[in-house]
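Give me structure tokens for this 501-residue protein.
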Amino acid sequence: MQRRRRGILVPGAPFPPSFWILVGGIFVNRFGSFVGVFLLVYLTAQGYPTAQAGFAAGAYGLGSMAAALFGGSLADHRGRRWTIVVAMFSSAAATLALSQARAMPALVGLATLAGFCAALYRPAASALLTELVPREQRLSAFAWYRFVLNVGFTAGPLLAGFFASHAFFFLIFLTDALSSVIFGVLALVALPAESSGAAQQQPPTRAGFVEALHHDPRFLLFLLGSLAVAMVYFQHQSTLVLQVHSLGLSNAVYGALLSLNGLVVIVFELPLSQVTSKCPLLPLIAIGWLLTALGFGLVAFASNLVFLAGTVILWSVGEILHHPASAAYVADLAPAHLRGRYQGVWELTWNLAQTVGPPLGTLAFSWDAPRFWWLCGLLTSVAVLPLVLGKAPDQTSTQAARPSAETPALRRSGPPYPLRKKSGPPGRRSRALLNYLTLLPQGTDLDLRTIQQVICCSYPQARHLVEALERQDYVLRVAGPRRRYCLHPSYRPAAVRLRHR
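Here you go.
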């Protein structure tokens, strides 16, 4: 019998049912997210001045920014499902309350609360998605996540626009609240209460978020690059329309360019993610960022609609390449007990860029339009450097392999014999590392940078490897400011024991 080919376009093939429930709930919620888009239209239709209506709409966005940090912390402390359920039901209540508010202070306060509750689930959803699928499928999983977000955001406003054109504004708020309730119920009854991933396998003494960031310069450099890229990316919401007008084109052309971006992302993101699912993440992100730089930089030379459409296609393909890969990269960098906060901080950089980038871009565009687009291309190209810097190994880590008189005591001791896991015997890199450890003097410890050099792999792969070996009690983690590992003394020589497995 011929075996059926499994791929990302085969519904449900590579992912567990809980993954599809999660993305299905996200789609329903995103499809009904009307209030954030039509709040300004609603308030002006109710007779409020444009300045006040804009202030209330800005408060909604400010609440969304605050939710990125608080939602990640809540997901890590209270659980992913609990955070999603609380966020969805509170979002429904805040949205309905906003529809009944009339005084401007109440409108601003409830708009802030509604934006906060509506975005509170996102870090938890990203962290849960990371734990529901195997590591090698994260890129495809985040591509599906973005696909349902884009389809929901594209289709939902059509219904909301129909409601607004007929002055059915309460239906906008009601539909938004109902979509949140549906997602909340799905999460409550169908999503796993606790992940079976590494979050439950962490030691009792775990580093805090600030300490983890302090010892994770790669993530900080990646955040810096992401902020620069995002500030350039969101110029399509502000300065791109000014460029269209400067060429004598209409607002309809600008709308068509934005629709072209949505069409390219929706049609090509899933097929491209299937092709790139086995590619290393950092080169994929770098290529995406460079395509974004090329797309926005060439706007300076665009003199007609066809050229403008070509630039949009370039940065749209860049978006397809770098955004799912970036989410998967953040998931790989994050410790299991900090995944929500890592995803939240990364999402905050995009929220901040969406708030700061458009006004700064319009100001720079008014000074010198052609040089502004060159600057956008240059800034995004320079943003690739943190990826290179973050990938570079620490040259001082070679000293870690030497015996040290200051080596701290072992944090814990294992059983007399290793427990055999269902995953089977160690792989090629695991055997290579264990055999290398047997050659070192008793008491010698290695940090992750040295292990990375020994087995010739990336830093996330080295960390994943030693964490897997630690869970099987092949190696012991040594306490201290840096993660250090050594072979358990009961397991020497490792090569002989591995032949018996």
